[in-house]
Amino acid sequence: MKPRLPLIGEPLAVDLVNTRAVVPSGPVDMMATPAELWEWLTRQADRMTMPTRAERTSLDEADLAAVHEVREHTARTLSAIRRGKRPPADALRGLNEAQRAAPGIRKLSWRGGALVGTVDRPGKLGLRVAASLAEAAADLLTDPLVEALRECEEQNCVMLFVATNPRRRWCSAAICGNRVRVARYYKRHKATA
Fold first, then answer.
1. Residue 36: partners with Cβ closer than 8 Å, 6 or more residues away
2. Which of 41, 130, 174, 175 is the most exposed place for a label (fewest CB within 10 A)?
């Protein structure tokens, strides 16, 4: 059974990497189709420029491949950083190339009595989305916050999270934290039975 899209709310680059999971039957891609990519983008609408409704139907396998490529480069780079290693040169190059494929231009406009800046990107939808995600990865990778990146301690979870509280151990206390507590409880009571 394929898990539903993961929790969101971590930095955008972490949310992207968390669209891959490992379940007992093996690795699962929760963003394996253009429709699932659209669903994920919709959930991230408050953090990135959303494609128009008309563009939704234009999402195709090439768009998905561009996003998957950025996800892979981001995952490999974050993994290296978490281990205190130098990131793979090809992963950094891939993130840079994704940004270069659809460079963002800060467009200024006057709305509601205030100056507003929005990022406008040229090009095909998949390249624009991939460039935005690569930029989000670059932002995280150069932010001191990346030092607080952790992998969930629940044994069957591979989700990443930023531990802004040093005591945080799970991607979600309500899901993985609860699983760990229930397993401990069961183990204690099984031993006494």
1. 5, 30
2. 174
> How far apart, in whole angstroms, are the C-alpha atoms of residue 129 and residue 144?
25
10-residue stretch averages of pLDDT, the chain, 193 residues long: 68 94 79 92 84 78 96 97 96 97 90 89 90 96 94 84 87 74 75 66
Complete domains list, the chain, with CATH: 12-147 (1.10.3300.10)
DSSP annotation of 151:
E
CA-to-CA distance for 136 and 69, rounded, in angstroms? 14
Strand ranges for 48-180 from DSSP E: 105-111, 114-120, 149-151, 160-162
3-state secondary structure of 191: helix
Burial of 43 from C-beta contacts in 10 A (0-12 / 13-18 / 19+): middle
Q: How many CB atoms lie within 10 A of CB 45?
A: 10
Kindly tell me the burial class for residue 104, based on how many C-beta atoms sit within 10 Å of its own C-beta (0-12, 13-18, 19 or more).
Answer: middle
Tokens of 160: 């990443």
